[in-house]
């Protein structure tokens, strides 16, 4: 199993012969200018919430790939109104078995409005059971005590926002690793905008000192999970 980082919170996980794309925000990101979204061809697109820096390429990628979109019910309704019906709507606390594994939608503390002003429902994260691994994609979130509910999941990897200002920063993300009982982390949601720029060397030092294996991949970099 492997993941490829495409900037901001956009990742692609390849597992069980399927490609899972999370929060597609590529074409508006100058740092990802060399990424061809038409070449991604995911089988599934998982959407954590409705903000533009998570759904900017959602419709385009879905239409070019035919991928099934997994998202909260309100975003599913929004997609239906745009003629996209290959959608699986969910809600917080619910889980479903797909052909690549099981997905549970979990709480995130943030906000969610779609780019056209439509309500995006509640923000969410995902816990995936796939390929013999358990993976947590936190989405955009503050540190929340609800994360303690994941400590018995025996997570193998966690994708955590670390850019601060709009989400958790580095220190809160480190605290989150103890809540979720996971010491393998890939940082997301940082460096895309000036207000979420981080000192990568400082971040690595802090996570490492806390006993956490932290990865901050470059855009297009592949990490084995």
From TrEMBL:
InterPro entries: Metallo-B-lactamas, RibonucZ/Hydroxyglut_hydro, UPF0173, UPF0173_UPF0282_UlaG_hydrolase. The keyword Hydrolase applies. Keywords: Hydrolase. It comes from the Bacteria. Gene3D superfamilies: Ribonuclease Z/Hydroxyacylglutathione hydrolase-like. GO terms for molecular function: hydrolase activity. Signal peptide: none annotated. Residues 7-189 form the Metallo-beta-lactamase domain. Belongs to the UPF0173 family. HAMAP family: UPF0173. This is UPF0173 metal-dependent hydrolase CLV57_0472. It comes from Mucilaginibacter auburnensis.
